[in-house]
Design goal:
389 residues, alpha+beta, three-stranded antiparallel sheet, 13 helices, 11% strand
Length: 389
Amino acid sequence: MSEGNIVFRKTLDERTTSRGPADPAATVVPMRMGTAGVGLLVNDHREATRILSDVETYGSAGELMATVFDEPAESHPDSMSDEMVFAVNQTDEEEHRRVRRALRRVIDTRVRDVSDQLIQDVQHSIERALTLGRLDAVASIGAPIADSVMSRLLGLDANLVSALRTAVYQGYPVRELDATLVDWVRDRRAHPADDLVSDLMAELPSLNDRQVAANTRLLALSGVEVLAALITNGILCLAQDPKTQSLVRDDETLLPDLVHEVQRYASPIARGIYRMTKEPSVIGGYAVPAGTLLIIGVDVCNRDTSAFPDAHRFDLTRGRDFEHLTFGRGRHSCLGIPVTRLIAAQALRAFLSGTTSFGLAVEPSALRFHDTMVMNGLAELPIWVECAN
């Protein structure tokens, strides 16, 4: 257990500590979601788990999800005649099963083929960062590691990774991003390369260029910023907790427990999971009509005191006998969970073994998170380090 409370994101801390069991707004909160209209934010772990488990009642958000962070459709007249194309997480039933199976096969194969290189990339990134003495862990550790994963797995170049990062943090419209990716996919189809996207097109040739682009976007957004944020959020927690630093340095078998608790306490996902009611339903005691957009308040659910004892404390000794919702659950859980956990654990292991101590170079109150409701991603993380060698 940590020696004291670990400061994470102020707005999250305020939202979670202010929730009370008698507060009727704690479970379901109406909120406007871009051009998708009003949706319901679900902040209760039990209700969110039930929703994510019941694919018959709560389906993929589809068209609603596609417009949550985009511009109004009338601002893109050329796209109105196009058939909307969704990534696998925006589909259900046979289409979802068909594409997910193919993605699972090519991801597993590709990760197995390049895992040694990925681990070497992590080690080299950490070694370079530790030569600085005082550094920004976002720019020097989280981002380079995530970028190398996207290069090794998907074959994305620096310009595409930059566009994806802009999409997450600066509201780059999905339509424009997909148009850029479609051009890249067409080139890959004509000139296959040694990467996961080329593997997917060979595995499932019935997918057209726009479908491949949509799924590339899904994998890349998860890989680029979720992975970077998970690593840097872990460093942020450890930087405030010398006791946990020492525990894991002395016993590396605790690394999986550490990653699991970081995912819960300092989730890189804030409100990035969406569902839609297929039929009338009751959520948190409220009658909800069919066709309602549901937003899972992942980070708040992960600190639900009714689900986690002492939920507001960062606690390595919590183990892994609990279920956080950072990567969803069930049929629509994140496809990249194994590689994300692998790389995050390797990064934290290398950083801890390469240091004798480290801490924040600024007051926790001075930390800046990106202004987005989807991610809990730091804009920068200034830290000092004392190297082991």
